Amino acid sequence: MLKLPMIFGDNMVLQRQKSIEIWGELGPGEQVTVELSRNGKTVGKASAKSGEDGVFHVFLPALEAGRELALTVVSGGESVTFRDVLIGDVWIAGGQSNMEYFMNFDAEREAAYAWDEPELRFFDYPEVSFEGELEEYDFSEFGLWRRCRREDMPWWSAVGAWFAKKLHGETGVPVGVVGCNWGGTRACCWIGREYLEGTPGDVWLRDYERDNEDVDPTEYRNAYLANPANINNHPFEGFTEVLWPGYTREVQLMALESMAKMEKPPYFDLIGPDHPWRPCGLYETMLKNVAPYTCRGVLWYQGESDDTHPEIYDAVLEILVRNWRDLWHDELPFLMVELAPFGAWLDCVGDRFPIVRDRQERAARSIPGVWLASSSDCGMEWDIHPKHKRPIGERLALLALGHVYGQNIYCDAPELEEARWADGTLTLTFKYGEGLHIEGEAVNSLTADGVPCMGQTQGNKFILSTQEKPRRVELAQSGYYQVNLYNGAGLPAKPFAAEVR
């Protein structure tokens, strides 16, 4: 029987300018033909035979942007046709809750609900953490290509939506965003075991195996399913007030006190065999069901949950990028988001986030085809989920336009290049610092040997007078901060800590 992955459907966007991979299942050795057409006229066509395992892969020729298309897959007496297909640019939106974060909760959602953009489409893969979950529970609100219209916009990734809106406005081609993400997940959840073993990321496997050494899988499954909150198929129901604006620290502390008094069922706090946060789990149950859908690149917003082992995050990111590029058979560009500043949210604190941000920056500098968007002015002191996703989405779009699409624009945030002292003057020189300026009376969160800095900008430099040579200069190295040092493109400086030369 002809079977195609869930990601193929009406309203989908196919990738332009690349050979388009269509795959699925048949009986062994059976012929299949895929045709892309407009008004009955063939635009692209290809055929192949399934292998001994019944899996087939058909590659349509690379095409330019197109609209009002139909994709038909035929094998023997069976056929399936998908309509209102677009050809444009497809981006995979991966990560944890700040990427998953629905437009339903965004502070500017009403503006987005008014959009009329028929060439923007969004697909969100169901959040399933164990085999059989997809068939056992109702995930009908997921796994379909949503349009850019009021009834669909609440379900969009807010970051993905603002990214798509900006990108489409600049390129004029259809944009599809494929969500494959889950709140609270570590990077290791999205990596194959064979890539993680024997690397610095192996520590996540060791932690998991230690914690589950005496766990009975059947008992764990029964306990896991006994909690309806573990089936993540109705995201706008239940304990959603934590995502809305105005969830104050006082209310959070009361909620924590109330939860502490609750009697916890068995395995409640254990990341066990069916839990979405286990290493390598979602790589198998989600990501491999999206790959290798032909795409332009990856948007990655994640890292908050990696603060248990923040010192290896750059190494884990390098493994993840290599794994995904191998899975897609394509050296995909990765556009990543720096963790936003925050102090505390429920029982989470941001004390280790400066280490994670430093490792994010190291990864962006060392891995070819990886770039990092600054979020150093976007945080909230008492919330790990910033409510304004527009700056993040638009900055990711700028990175795409500059580095992937080759536009001659300023798209990178200022990065400290050198801190030098001479003759009573400390000069901080910034890469991508053209048009450097302070929005306000004084620069925030900048210290020299722990003392706040007062100075002025000049070109791509920040200059201040100090009679004694400081040893160390730092920007945004606390839990919560608000950077107000920008370049001419309106991008805030990235956090740094450096020795003064």
Outline the fold blueprint.
Elements: E1 13-15, E2 20-25, E3 31-38, E4 41-49, E5 55-60, E6 66-75, E7 78-95, H1 97-100, H2 109-113, E8 120-124, H3 133-136, E9 145-147, H4 158-171, E10 175-181, H5 193-196, H6 202-211, H7 217-225, H8 249-261, H9 281-285, E11 297-301, H10 313-328, E12 334-337, E13 344-345, E14 348-349, H11 353-366, E15 370-373, H12 390-404, E16 415-422, E17 425-431, E18 437-438, E19 446-448, E20 451-452, E21 456-458, E22 461-465, E23 472-475, E24 485-486, E25 496-499
Parallel strand pairs: 1-7, 7-10, 7-11, 8-10, 11-12, 12-15
Antiparallel strand pairs: 2-5, 3-4, 3-6, 6-7, 8-9, 13-14, 16-17, 17-22, 18-24, 19-20, 19-23, 21-22, 23-25
**Strand content bin:** 25-35%
Distance between the termini: 69 Å
At the fold tier of CATH, the topology name of the largest domain is Rossmann fold
Q: What CATH first level of the largest domain would be assigned?
A: Alpha Beta
Proportion of residues in helical segments:
10-25%
H/I helix tally:
12
Q: Give a short account of the largest sheet.
A: 11 strands, mixed
Please state the structural category.
alpha+beta
Looking at CATH, the homologous superfamily of the largest domain is SGNH hydrolase
Shape: globular
